[in-house]
Amino acid sequence: MKSKIDYSIYLVTDRDLMSTETLEEAVEKSIIGGCTLIQLREKDCSSLDFYNTAVKVKEITDKYNIPLIINDRVDIALAVDAAGVHVGQSDIPAAIVRKIIGNDKILGVSTGSVEQALEAEKNGADYLGVGAMYSTGTKKDANSTSMNELRKIRENVSIPIVVIGGINKDRVKDFTGIGIDGLAIVSAIIAKEDIITAAQELKTEFLKI
Asked: Is residue 207 classed as helix, strand or coil in its secondary structure?
């Protein structure tokens, strides 16, 4: 299953920014618009609320055969049988997460340097989330990653790279020729009044690079 993952338009959810009444509606519209992967990120809710939300969102992703990735919470990912989990540099180490989830589930790791990228690949990551590429309001503590560093990461690892951090349709062209595998998008999709069109436009721009 993992070899067939399409990372091109990767939605990372944020309920504080969504233009819809429910997270499920936002996710469904984003998939209709062309999102190929969904990461459920819930920073400010109880474990039970996270679990219940994950169950509802997974019903949507399963309906469209889109993989669901859970941010940080390995327990939630296993509880709902999500496709995988994404961890950051301050979360449980990737090598430990890989042992817990096994080899069949997707493991993504946030990285911002060649050193971190090589470590993540060595420890079993299936893909890297590289950034923040631009300043972003969705993650105030994110360190920035230069285009030069991104190129170095691409040259040094063989696994897919998804860029994240302040990316919108006008900035996609900045990544031309680098060899990235996808765009991780938050507000440029989920905060838009027309989520379907926003996702479509990002996909169109990505295909040009």
From this structure: helix
- Structural contact between residues 24 and 56, judged by C-beta atoms closer than 8 angstroms: yes
Is 41 marked active-site? yes
Active site residue 139: yes
* CA torsion angle 39 44 49 50 (round to 10): 20
One DSSP character per residue, 176-192 reads TTT---EEEESHHHHTS
Q: Which of 29, 58, 139, 203 is catalytic?
A: 139
Q: Are strands 161-164 and 68-71 parallel, antiparallel or unpaired?
A: unpaired
Q: Which two structure tokens, joined as six digits, stand for 115?
A: 């050193």
Helices (H) and strands (E) counted in the chain, each on its own, are 8, 8
Cα gap 174→167, rounded to integer Å: 10
* 110 part of the active site: yes
* CA 107/CA 50 separation, integer angstroms: 19
> Which one is catalytic: 41, 105, 169, 192?
41
Q: Are 189 and 195 in contact (CB under 8 A)?
A: yes
Residues 72-115 have pLDDT tens digits of 999 999 999 999 999 999 999 999 999 999 999 999 999 999 99
| Beta-carbon-side half-sphere exposure of residue 23 (alpha carbons within 13 Å) | 23
What's the pLDDT tens digit per position in 156-169?
999 999 999 999 99
Give the alpha-carbon dihedral of 36, 94, 76, 203, to 10 degrees: -10
Name the token pair of 17: 């920014």
The single residue of 8, 30, 110, 187 carrying the catalytic annotation is 110
